[in-house]
Design a protein that fits this description.
The complex is a heterodimer of chains A (104) and B (179). Chain A has 104 residues and is an all-alpha fold. Helices cover 74% and strands 0% of the residues of chain A. Chain A has a single domain, classed as Helix Hairpins. In chain A, helix 1 runs antiparallel to helix 2 and helix 2 packs antiparallel against helix 3. Chain B is mainly α. The chains are: A mainly alpha (104), B mainly alpha (179). The interface between A and B is large, with 75 and 88 residues.
């Protein structure tokens, strides 16, 4: 079988990471920035799984790390969205430039 | 060969969706693009035989996190109105330059680094059984302690999110229930 190689996966996840980073640097809306962070985390998890498949022949460490990344992303998204809601309640908008203080 | 073609199709789909996420000015469409990108990554997991991770990606990311994000978008933004300010042009060009440089560096490093040859000719991924054993067994090769720590983290995040997002009542005023 002549499938994709490790390099394919590494280059693809680098591309996904850079797209996410670009979004993180240019977007002004906090929710959009959170979505770009999800792209970056996905690229990292994909790298773990690709290394596990291509180099370590089924050692379960790679998928376990990917699962942990997904779990941490879930926790992070929950907290971030709660903060956004609290921020929106006071500021009525979600622009990073205006969110200079966490405390009222 | 079939797998390679499938890989390129899924990769192109994912990159296109990710580009949509980072450029669309409409938040709700960004969320839809992110769903497409996450589904594309789940397909890429399937190509390298990581069925369990693919299922986790779809259930937790698309079914959990993205639904949460969509809820918050509907709560905080008037989706019919798409007025949020764009970044300055110099910021965009500097960011693009940084990202292109980083990408070129990573690709160069990937090409230059001598990765060891794949273990054997038959590449395989861990089965669900192996992942389960690794997650729940203490001792060497097991991740029982990190697993418990993650559970604690999720509980803490849950309680913290409820505490932060709870609508407080102002002392001496009507309850603020506009959101």
């Amino acid at each position: 079988m002549n499938g994709p190689t490790l390099e394919h996966y590494l280059v693809f996840s680098a591309l996904l990471f850079c797209l996410g980073l670009y979004g993180l640097l240019t977007r002004r809306n906090l929710i959009a920035m959170l979505m770009c962070t999800e792209l970056v985390l996905n690229a990292a998890a994909l790298n773990f799984v690709a290394f596990h498949h291509f180099l370590y022949g089924g050692d379960a460490t790679g998928p376990v790390f990917a699962i942990f990344i997904i779990a941490v992303a879930a926790a992070e998204a929950a907290i971030a969205l709660a903060i956004f809601i609290a921020l929106f309640r006071h500021k009525r908008q979600l622009d990073v430039a205006d969110a200079t203080r966490l405390k009222l | 060969m079939m797998h390679t073609i499938l890989f390129f199709c899924l990769a192109a789909f994912t990159v296109f969706s990710a580009y949509f996420v980072i450029t669309s000015r409409h938040l709700f469409r960004c969320a839809m693009g992110l769903i497409a990108a996450l589904l594309g990554v789940a397909g890429l997991y399937l190509i390298i035989d990581a069925q369990f991770l693919s299922a986790v990606q779809i259930t937790v990311y698309v079914g959990g996190i993205l639904v949460l994000v969509v809820f918050v978008i509907l709560l905080v933004a008037d989706v019919t109105q798409k007025v949020f300010r764009q970044g300055a042009a110099w910021r965009k060009s500097v960011s693009a330059a940084v990202c292109v440089l980083l990408f070129a560096g990573v690709v160069f490093a990937t090409r230059a680094f001598p990765f060891p040859a794949p273990a054997g000719n038959d590449l395989k991924s861990a089965t669900i059984e192996q992942i389960g054993h690794a997650l729940l067994s203490p001792g060497p090769g097991g991740y029982a302690l990190p697993f418990e720590v993650i559970s604690l983290l999720l509980i803490a995040a849950l309680i913290g999110a409820i505490t932060i997002a709870r609508s407080e009542t102002r002392p001496g005023g009507p309850p603020e229930n506009s959101l």
